[in-house]
Design goal:
- This protein has 18 helices and no strands.
- The longest helix is centred in the middle third of the chain and has 31 residues.
- 56% of the residues are buried.
Length: 424
Amino acid sequence: MHQSPPRSPAGSSRPDASALRILIILSALMSFSSISTDMYLPALPTIARELHSASGPVELTISTFLIGFSLGQLFWGPIGDRMGRRVPIALGLLLFAIGSVGCGMSTSIAQLLCWRIVQAAGACSGPVLARAMTRDLYAKERAAQTLSILILMMAVAPLLGPLLGGQVLLLWSWRAIFWILAALGILTLLALRALPETLPVERRSVAPLGTTLRSYLALAGNIRLMGYAISGGFYYGGCYAFIAGTPFAYVDYYHVPAQAYGLLFGVNIVGLMAANYLNTRLVLRLGSERIFLFGSVIAALSGVWLAVDSRFGWGGVAGLALPVFIFMSVSGFIVANSVASALAAFPQQAGAASSLIGAMHYGSGVLSAAMLGWFADGTPWPMGWIVGAAGLGCLATALIQARLVRCAVRDQTPDLGLAEPAAE
């Protein structure tokens, strides 16, 4: 049985003020992963120069953030299942603010790398527990619709992040970007007072935290959850190869001004917003699995297109920007639907399941961003082939998952965690 906030925001075209307030706060919590990275992207070449570093170590500031972000989720989810959602989120936001201040005061790449891990360990509490709160409130298709609405709202962060970061860099310095992030963390912490607790005491986990952490082994054995998590992980790997690679591909290789880079980045977010809006209109009619598979096909095709253009230099900046736009846009079909489908069978372990999915998603980003540094050759080619391989991996695992689900439903084998869960 799910709690229902007044006038469900996903089910009403005119949500009341309370439901809208919940949506706004949840979208802000989910945005910390993107705003923490996207806002300082235009400053990466400047950071490399001022801290006397090559591009590879600076790109690793993205990888280290993703390491802290993925591993931190493995702790915040079970803690949220045990203590409720609001207190862990508050602690995470405080840690995020401390890490942001540390980044702004760093005087070497080594210090910046360490503080990025601290920043990420706090930032990840927001997205993982916001997803769990959505699962607290809604069943599968409605959860997918609500997640799309949240992603649509939170898209303001990556849309404005590079633009704002470019302007801060122009008017002040790269350090000011991290001071602004610290202030955003504190403001969101204050806004938590308006967010209700969605996990009542009677539904909280009573098992010791160590036992809860060991439950990851059981969750990892669920084929349904792992199929969606791995497919989404491939897609996230492609996204973070783009995020880490385009500042140098656009700014250094094609000499795009840092301020114009923000515009090129923001166009992708407009596509993402459009796809998420379309998903909210279609998911209850077509089903989340079908839309997820469609998005995976488009991700594979656009990824291969990007790889070809980057290898042969076709189209210049446009040859990169067009396939990237398509690849990033289908996030609106892939992310919300894969997460909602994976969490559908775990109403009592939504926090832990969300943590495991998030850790795998962002862990793949660690690998792809690191690979970009390892294979960097001063051209867009490493970014292109990594995104292309990620798109093909997303499609391959999505096809396998779809076949397993069909077989499980046909043979009625719920013990594998593949069949649709019973209606709640």
